[in-house]
Design a protein that fits this description.
Strand content: under 5%
Radius of gyration: 29 Å
Number of domains: 1
Distance between the termini: 97 Å
Largest sheet: none
Shape: rod-shaped
Oligomer: single chain
Helix content: over 70%
Number of helices: 1
């Protein structure tokens, strides 16, 4: 015996609900990933800034000694 229209409708609704939930999970993951990546890049940027300042200091100290 074939499925009734009501059964098909419920199956389609369940399928759409599953898709919707999975899309929400993907969006949540991407938002967390973006935040984590942004924080990590910010930390790397801070470390690079410190290193650049140290290199500038060493360059000026070396110029002073060599003159």
């Amino acid at each position: 015996m074939g499925k009734t229209n009501i059964q098909k409708d419920w199956e389609e609704r369940e399928f759409i609900e599953d898709i919707s939930i999975n899309v929400q999970k993907i969006i949540e993951f991407l938002n967390k990933f973006e935040l984590s990546t942004r924080n990590k890049l910010s930390n790397v940027n801070e470390k690079l800034t410190v290193l650049e300042r140290q290199v500038d200091y060493l360059e000026s100290a070396f110029k002073t000694v060599s003159e």
